[in-house]
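This part of the workshop introduces the protein records we will be handling. An example says more than a description, so a record of this kind follows:
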Amino acid sequence: MLELKDIQVYYDGIHAIKGVSLTVPQGALITLVGSNGAGKSTLLRTICGLKRPSSGELRFKERNLLDMSVTRIVQMGISMVPEGRQIFPDLTVMENLRLGAFTRTDQDEIARDQERVFSLFPRLKERASQKGGTLSGGEQQMLAIARGLMARPSLLLMDEPSLGLAPILVEEVFRVIWEIHREGVTLLLIEQNAQAALAIADYGYVMESGSIVLQGKGEDLLHDEAVRRAYLGQDIGA
């Protein structure tokens, strides 16, 4: 579904992405793990059209994304849940959700998708008329995910969805991610919680200093000695 070949990106004069190539097959859950500053978020912004690479190929459903506007990329079926939630704090939950569907005109289907996200996140339905800025951190993350789904994406990009959440909310977020995946949405997940991400991933990539340094099935990376020492804080025999 998504293919990157030798992507090079410079950010404020820094060579942030150094020849990254990766593939996201249709229906897969792919995770990208790595430390802060590895270039993971920059890579997602590049896929969305928010950053332009200096060279390389970026294709979605065999269409070249490099000449497309951000709006057109969303219309093509790519949506992102950004790091830090970035909801609209002065708008209600319902208004945030409606903005997630801003490229769509199919009002009946939008209404159905609204009920779908309310079934995933019952607390959002209870707070539909409440301003986003008054929600708890966990509820704001739920709203950010729900807003991303309102675009009805075929590929959902998620940037650190569990960041800053209490453990019980992290479990809830990953439960929802798995449910979204089961419904057929293709996912590219960036996550510092490498253990939780690799445990549900079909395939994973490890990124360091702007480069992919390791890749493999999620389960294999979860038990890889180097990955466990670097990102899980444990030795292979632990």
Notes: The longest strand covers residues 14-24.
